[in-house]
Amino acid sequence: MLSFTAIDFELATADYNSICAVGVVRVDDGIITQEYFSLVKPPNNKYMWQTTRVHGIKPKDTAESPTFDELYSELAPLLAGRDMVAHNEKFDRSVLKQTMKYYGLRYEDLNISDQWLCTNILYQQLGFARTKLNVCCKIMDIPLKHHDPLSDARATAMLYLQRDEAPEKWQRSLTDSL
User: What's the whole-model pTM score?
Assistant: First the structure.
């Protein structure tokens, strides 16, 4: 599978419908062909300090941003009918489904699978002992500005595209740490 869409969300609260930023990377025939980023105004523009501490996004940053339903018409063409990849697919898929439901949008209309490819699980299967996004990117020499959703989505796409090189790089990282 060399054509897919990688996605990453940041949340404003612990609620899975509180998207405050989204990053999407479209890959066609193994080449990144489109990138999309938007800040998103979560419901009531409400944030938890714990989430802001992780990603740095604050209510003032999203006060004038579109809500998810307002930007959905831009996002849907990047997702519709695509194979989807995320670093923690269960989380990102659940966030998309719950946010769409909150805004009265039908996930089924996107014609995407109920299970996506997960690079976290893939890299576990490839033998990585630790598979957090930043750890995998460091070993794989993939640039990352962690918790920036576009950077995270781009890194996820690159992890998937470079998966054949992972066992060798993992072994080299073990040797280098000795």
Answer: 0.93
Output the tens digit of pLDDT for each of the chain's 178 residues. 689 999 999 999 999 999 999 999 999 999 999 999 999 999 999 999 998 888 989 999 999 999 999 999 999 999 999 999 999 999 999 999 999 999 999 999 999 988 899 999 999 999 888 999 999 999 999 999 999 999 999 999 999 999 998 777 777 776 665 4
- For residue 139 the two structure tokens come to 């070993």
Dist. CA 47–CA 35, nearest whole Å: 26
Distance CA 133, CA 149 (A): 12
Tokens 């990144």, residue located? 32
149-161 and 133-140 helices, crossing angle to 10°: 50
